[in-house]
């Protein structure tokens, strides 16, 4: 063992540093006892990532936390932070990322103050806060209100720390109407904001104006709408699960927006969204839509309506289209996006996540998942000149899959590859699914697709 330690200690500093930066913070701290040389390594760390989960007993992670549990976990985070930072006293090395994951509690203030002192005395390029709540899921209204008040007390106590944040992750907060404008006003350097189950009340309106924000993620929100009024540097917008009966967001001034991701379980009362109206005056390059194996909530539109917002679109992912739905309607995207290069479609009924049986009657699910998807091409001889790759996950040797693939191949005159995958499954269900294509299946499918066609397109069957 001594020989192994000796060989490790002879490695160059940059190699040792690379090793330590890959360790959990608790293990990284233990390396300081190996030798005098190892003791100096934490002072050179470019990333300091301290996660509260590293200090929680494993048997506690699946049980309900108490206030004492949270206090102990946050104390451990605080002590680890101070220990690492004390070893850097006088260090000339820049901390490129300082990421703190901790629980919202009375002692959060001490963590915030420690980070603020570090920013004031050392070179810190980027700071991230991931702030967790005692109850992570299925919060009651009283929980949301309590966490909201607690967070604002913490926020008001540490303006210097929040003023330097580049990334902020919040969950389960019901804030006052003036709180979000205050947060945006203080967090002037914020580049990423992730809000999970955060609002100002049911059917509330969130207005966003921020000069530096580049990525906004909103999940499981009770917001009626998010108005992106002035966000000049925003490039990524992700909207996951919304209850709004109208458009979930409004894009005003977002000139650099490139990627939009929307995921939602469509209920019977959800509006069919028109992308030409939802995306406004933007010209995005990447679009990701996840239908969660339920109702399709996008309305097919004509080329004339879509061209202004799809004129720069190069990549489209359509995830979790129910197996009950036809695929012809997706051609409207191809017709409206002349610069599209890659189209990826996933078709499956993911039973591990879907609500099944009698429980479906407790929710307003639509029994017609493809209702309102009628679509006719604007020109029978429509051709697309830029699509080079089509990928279909969950492909089956059924007429609707074969016919759809043939339609795309006939329309996309420069198509180079068609990738056909079986249902990928998840960690729970993939063991029950066929692992890959048999030779017989590949020959049969290829013959069906190519029948009567003389196109030079490679049909591939990746495993």
TrEMBL record:
Q: Supply the InterPro entries for this chain.
A: F-box-like_dom_sf (IPR036047), F-box_dom (IPR001810), F-box_plant (IPR044997), LRR_At1g61320_AtMIF1 (IPR055357), LRR_dom_sf (IPR032675)
Q: Which residues form the F-box domain?
A: 5-52
Segments spanning the bilayer are none
Q: What is this protein called?
A: F-box domain-containing protein
Q: Which organism is it from?
A: Triticum aestivum (Wheat)
């Amino acid at each position: 063992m001594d020989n192994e330690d000796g060989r490790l200690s002879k490695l160059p500093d940059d190699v040792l540093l690379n090793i330590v930066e890959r360790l959990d913070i608790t293990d990284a701290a233990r390396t300081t006892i190996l030798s005098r040389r190892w003791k100096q390594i934490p002072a050179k760390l470019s990333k300091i990532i301290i996660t509260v989960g590293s200090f929680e007993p494993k048997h506690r992670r699946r049980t309900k936390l108490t206030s004492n549990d949270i206090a102990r976990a946050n104390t451990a985070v605080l002590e680890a932070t101070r220990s690492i930072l004390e070893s850097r006293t006088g260090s000339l090395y820049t901390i490129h990322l300082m990421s703190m994951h901790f629980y919202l509690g009375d002692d959060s203030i001490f963590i915030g103050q420690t980070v603020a002192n570090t920013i004031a005395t050392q070179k810190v390029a980027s700071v991230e806060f991931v702030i967790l709540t005692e109850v992570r899921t299925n919060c009651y209204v009283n929980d949301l209100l309590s966490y909201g008040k607690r967070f604002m007390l913490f926020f008001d106590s540490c303006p210097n720390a929040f003023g330097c944040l580049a990334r902020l992750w919040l969950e389960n907060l019901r804030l006052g109407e003036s709180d979000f404008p205050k947060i945006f006003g203080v967090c002037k350097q914020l580049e990423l904001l992730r809000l999970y189950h955060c609002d100002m009340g049911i059917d509330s309106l969130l207005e966003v104006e921020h000069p530096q924000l580049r990525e906004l993620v909103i999940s499981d929100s009770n917001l009626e709408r998010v108005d992106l009024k002035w966000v000049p540097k925003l490039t990524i917008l992700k909207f996951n699960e919304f209850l709004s009966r109208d458009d979930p967001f409004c894009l005003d001034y977002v000139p650099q927006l490139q990627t939009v991701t929307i995921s939602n379980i469509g209920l019977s009362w959800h509006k069919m969204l028109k992308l030409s109206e939802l995306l406004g005056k933007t010209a995005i390059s990447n679009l990701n839509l996840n239908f969660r194996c339920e109702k399709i909530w996008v309305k097919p539109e004509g080329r004339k309506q879509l061209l202004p917002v799809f004129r720069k679109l190069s990549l489209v992912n359509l995830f979790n289209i129910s197996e009950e739905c036809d695929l012809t309607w997706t051609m409207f995207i191809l017709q409206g996006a002349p610069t599209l290069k890659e189209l990826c479609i996933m078709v499956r009924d993911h039973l591990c996540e879907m609500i099944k049986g009698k429980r479906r009657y407790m929710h307003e699910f639509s029994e017609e998942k493809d209702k309102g998807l009628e679509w006719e091409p604007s020109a029978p001889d429509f051709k697309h000149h830029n699509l080079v790759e089509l990928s279909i996950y969950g492909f089956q040797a059924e007429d609707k899959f074969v016919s759809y693939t043939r339609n795309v191949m006939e329309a996309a005159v420069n198509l180079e590859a068609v990738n056909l995958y079986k249902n990928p499954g998840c960690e729970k269900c993939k063991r029950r699914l066929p692992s890959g294509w048999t030779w017989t299946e590949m020959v049969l499918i290829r013959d069906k697709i190519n029948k009567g066609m003389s196109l030079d397109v490679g049909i591939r069957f990746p495993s």
